[in-house]
Amino acid sequence: MRVVMAIMLGVALLASGCASKVEYGDPQARETVTPDFGSSDLQMIATKMVDDMMVFPPVVELTRNRRPVLFVDRVKNKTSEHVDTESITDTIQSRLINSGKFRFVDMTVVDRVRQQLEYQQDSGMVDQSTAAQMGRQIGAEFMLYGNLSSIVKRDNSTKDVYYKFTLKLLNIQSGIIEWSGEKEIRKTRSRSLFGL
Q: Where does the signal sequence lie (predicted)?
């Protein structure tokens, strides 16, 4: 009996292992598995925000003859679901850097940079003629920050999720918001009467 059970278990495991299939997909393809926030939404938001910001007349003028220095604050997730907002800001930052119009300082690594500067200055292990000097970093002129919020409505057969992403460009010296943009997304999932 044990032998028969072991064989049946082995066949079941083998069959379940053969049933799954992994394939590469196009990362730019529209992802429609659930109404939750997904990769398509991230790409759509990043593209819309960067495109809107880059054609805004004051930003065009600001970047005409120089590359202003920005830092990106983490986007606040005000939804009820787990959303990797760092991925959103990373994608927006990458698109802006690759536009050739902006430079960025990375506030997420300040402590590690400080440790490296202290090591170069104080350890006695670094040739001082090649050591980076304290107080020589360039300060950010602008801060880019935003929010992701959602409203979820549902009944017995439908779930409707409305997402709103806002992004603002703040002049650190003056405190003036130089640009603001938003992108809205609505996703609806309907189930048939029989749950199929």
A: 1-21
